[in-house]
Amino acid sequence: MKAPKLPGGTVHKLPTDLRAALTADDRAGNLWSDFTPLARNEWICWVTSAKQDDTRKRRITVGLDKMHSGLRRPCCWPGCPHR
Questions:
Q1: Scanning 2, 27, 31, 59, which has the fewest C-beta atoms within 10 Å of its C-beta?
Q2: Where are the alpha helices (DSSP H) in 1-83?
Q3: Are 63 and 43 within 8 A, CB to CB?
Q4: 0.85 cut: is pTM over it?
């Protein structure tokens, strides 16, 4: 079965690992689709800016938890420098 189409951000495309996590979590996937393109961009950049694979995986897990808690953008991060 083909994964549902989830949008990326304003600058960044949605990476495969984050897409898989959002697709596996119906609630987070629905929240993601409701975020603005700029908010999605912030999440993507936060995840992809990790220098180590373990950090990136942890950011995906923590990010989904933060989304479930109602956060629409990553907390305590200066923001995407690419926009």
A1: 2
A2: 16-24, 26-34, 37-48, 53-68
A3: yes
A4: yes
